[in-house]
Amino acid sequence: MPRLMNGAELAGEIVERAAKRAASFLEKTGRKPCLATVLVGDDPASVTYVRMKQRRCAGAGVESRHVQLPAATTTAEAVAQVRELSEDPAVDGILVQHPVPAHVDERAVFEAIAPGKDVDGVTMHSFAAMALGEPGFLSCTPGGILRLLDAHGVEIEGKHAVVIGRSPILGKPAALLLLARNATVTVCHSRTADLKAVVRTADIVVAAVGKPEFVRGEWLKPGAAVVDAGYNPGNVGDVDFKSAEPVAGWLTPVPGGVGPTTIAVLLEQTVEAAWEGNSTPR
What is the pTM of this model? Predict the structure, then answer.
């Protein structure tokens, strides 16, 4: 029976600390830290995620400003809106909800976010900072994954980590952050030969492939720490929990694992952005 990596408990601790810093910011500046969310279109899952983030903002003492754009919004219009938020001194962090409609150039919209307000860690500036070990905001889900591993005493240095998935906002930054912690990292994807054999060598598995219950227990090395970064219809992740449970040493539940830590890191980085963008002494 694996030990579960409880993201909800860890997230509560992160948000509690962020809320104290947000209250201090309010006391010193007269305003709350502000997170602006931008949603293009009305994808039901995205709408739900944004509402959830707004509720979590309220609980952390962070102001939430929501910008809803029509599904027909062009790339140029979305970029202009994000640039306006970037130039607004009352906005500390900007989150562009992923995914955007297919006709919108998501990368162009991301790059309109000022680096100091990229609290979701999606710009090229943030990616380069993660790669080079320079100061900057982390991609929230990968950042939350490392916090989960650390909080549960999972050793990273010297271990073989396999990341399944290479998206620019999850798989790739997760690999960079693990590499920075001295893990030996293999990134797998749809063209990887004999994926099962590669996963079998991993001490740490990060499943970020976007396919329900894709990773099976028989693929796993006994005792491996398994992080399920997927969320699919039916409240299931990218790992088949039932078959992984007897094999894994550590395992994240879905829901209740990676998701809560992602939002907690987002709020923490928003508060940090507020302090960094304000000249008031701490």
Answer: 0.95
Encoded tokens for 83? 């640039």
Contact 204, 160 (CB under 8 A): yes
**What 3-state class would DSSP assign to 239?**
strand
Structural domain tally of the chain? 2
Active site residue 211: no
Q: Which of 83, 60, 102, 106 is closest to 266 using CA atoms?
A: 60
If pLDDT is split at 50, 70 and 90, which confidence band does 47 have? confident
CATH classification of the domain holding 159: 3.40.50.720
Residue 107 one-letter amino acid:
R
Residue 32: active-site member: no
Q: Which residues are annotated as a binding site for NADP(+)?
A: 165-167
* Mean pLDDT across 179-200: 97
Distance CA 114, CA 125 (A): 9
